[in-house]
Amino acid sequence: MRTPSGPFDRGHTDDLMTFLAASPTPYHAVATVAARLEKAGFRQVAETDAWDGEAGGKYVTRGGAIIAWYVPEGAAAHTPFRIVGGHTDSPNLRVKPQPDMGSQGWRQVAVEIYGGPLLNSWLDRDLGLAGRISLRDGTERLVDIDRPLLRVPQLAVHLDRSVTTEGLKLDKQRHMQPIWGLGNDVHEGDLLGFLEDEHGLARGSITGWDLMTYAVEAPSYLGRDKELVAGPRMDNLLSVHACTAALTEVTKRESLPYIPVLAAFDHEENGSQSDTGADGPLLGGVLERSVFARGGSYEDKARAFAGTVCLSSDTGHAVHPNYSERHDPTHHPRANGGPILKVNVNNRYATDGSGRAVFAAACEKAGVPFQSFVSNNAMPCGTTIGPITAARHGIKTVDIGTAILSMHSVRELCGADDPYLLANALTAFLEG
Description:
By secondary structure, the protein is an alpha/beta fold. The protein has helices spanning 11-22, 26-39, 163-166, 191-198, 234-250, 282-293, 298-306, 353-366, 385-393, 418-431, and strands at residues 43-44, 56-62, 65-71, 81-87, 92-103, 106-114, 127-135, 140-150, 179-182, 206-215, 220-222, 228-231, 259-265, 309-313, 316-317, 340-342, 371-373, 396-401, 403-405, 412-415.
């Protein structure tokens, strides 16, 4: 990976769009990252096995989360880590335990709202269905119906004239249940039976499921000069893709002063409190076991953690041309202006002055410009895995990301050069 001096090579962004299309759910994102790590020479280790202290790349997966790390030759047990982190989940519509429902001759699928999606963006979209199923024999399988299968139809304007004057008002329970066919009997839907038939499984094979809908429209360049990219799940697979690219790139270096780590968590969109979320024990357990596998003691672990820095990478808000008053008047991040440094003095972001210096040094080394983001004082500020990581593990953490529009929409928008700039900054950071 190299920052070009002339026009940007869009190869990285092309690859991002491939990554987004291949990762309709957190489970698919983890599988996609794992395949890329394997290609780069990493090997998977099981949490239930004893770990060795050998040099090289390793990774652990758990549901929708993946932790990967690379131990350089000769790394001491107290060698600090450099972590790039993000999350694999995005707001969407997820299938309920009793999936089949219907009304007025329509077959429908019962869904629950996950996270905080812009509900109107899910209306009149062709939706596929993907996720993870558990089978009667104890195995699990990823499934993906990548074609128009479901749709949440919007009410015609003729039946609600007030929508043009008072705005669209959606009830999460009544208005967001997608249709997928015709039928008078609820049980005619039989979503699980449909999935079993689609994947060559015997009826009754599926005993558990984590299924979610997604828009099947492919990511694409946008604009006169194609300087923008529109696509799904940029929050936050754009960061996961950049983190993966950075980690695999630094493993080509002959020597590294730190142990580079990729941490991609699930459930950030609903608070991170799960065994695969940033507020769970997964990251700390992996880092501790890495120290101990290399013959380290508790003292070595404490020394390693004290010297560790994490970049928490998540998308942030580019200034919106139609709503510029909603942004801080002196901080207007722009598309293709480089990654953003996210600051909030009330610790909704973990960045402080010394963390800013670390990120500034990485961007300077990479030849990458960066921007600063703070929320308008009159607006509530979102948060990330950054403060959680800092507080839970005592690790210096810096919140960064990429400026986008339409955050939490079924289809978001970013500058076409920004993913590449972010990946280069992350690579320089991991190099030390």
